[in-house]
């Protein structure tokens, strides 16, 4: 197993930097999930969609046994929480309803910022032996963050300008996801609007899973037209 992987699994919990020893390729994936009160409209779809996303990562790992795969789940309402810290995908537990039960406001900016900080601990900027993907799902606009959008935008631009850039995928309901994503510097190809219904929430997460798999296979073309149609 990758020595960086072993170090990363403890570093996020303990605040240490990761080991500098490389032994194999690692796909790092963080799913950032809105659990603000308005997400109650999605019913069980959010939990089901995230668990299907994790299942797909497990299947991708089985087909790419030469890759390590580490997945984490970050949630946000007024607070940002880490119900599933960076975990080898074969060991990751299912997301439970209690982890994402809707409540509170929307600290979207803080959640993305925190996820980038966690990714930095696992995969420093010079790491060329990894893919780094952050998938964000929300149904509203930020109304509770302490970090400003401008500060986050600067950080995201730095990460997307690396020689081995971060991949950001943005899913949003009740807004034009492409316009909102562009405010963060995320390309339109990686932004997806979805209808504020359980069915469309599930479709959006499945589309995000397919896009993540393509990214981790070297295809950065973004969402397909069919995936966009199925999500609205």
Report on the structure:
This protein is an alpha/beta fold. The protein has a single domain, classed as Rossmann fold (3-Layer(aba) Sandwich), CATH 3.40.50. The chain is 41% helix and 20% strand. Strands 3-2-1-4-5-6 form a six-stranded mixed β-sheet, sandwiched between helices. Helix 2 links the parallel strand 1 and strand 2. The longest helix is centred in the N-terminal third of the chain and has 19 residues.
What would you call the shape? Answer: globular
Tell me the number of strands: 6
The portion of residues forming beta strands comes to: 15-25%
Overall helicity: 40-55%
Structural class: alpha/beta
Strand order of the largest sheet: 3-2-1-4-5-6
Radius of gyration: 16 Å
Q: State the oligomer.
A: single chain
Report the span from N to C terminus: 41 Å
Specify the CATH architecture: 3-Layer(aba) Sandwich
Describe the sheet with the most strands: 6 strands, mixed
Number of helices: 8
CATH class: Alpha Beta
- Spans of 5+ residues with little confidence (pLDDT < 50)? 11-23
- How many domains comprise the coordinates? 1
Task: Briefly summarize what is shown.
The chain is an alpha/beta fold and 232 residues long. It has helices spanning 3-14, 45-63, 97-100, 108-122, 149-160, 177-183, 198-216, 225-230, and strands at 25-34, 67-76, 80-88, 130-138, 167-172, 191-193.
What attributes does this structure have?
about 230 residues; alpha/beta; Rossmann fold; 6-stranded mixed β-sheet; 8 helices; about 40% helix; globular
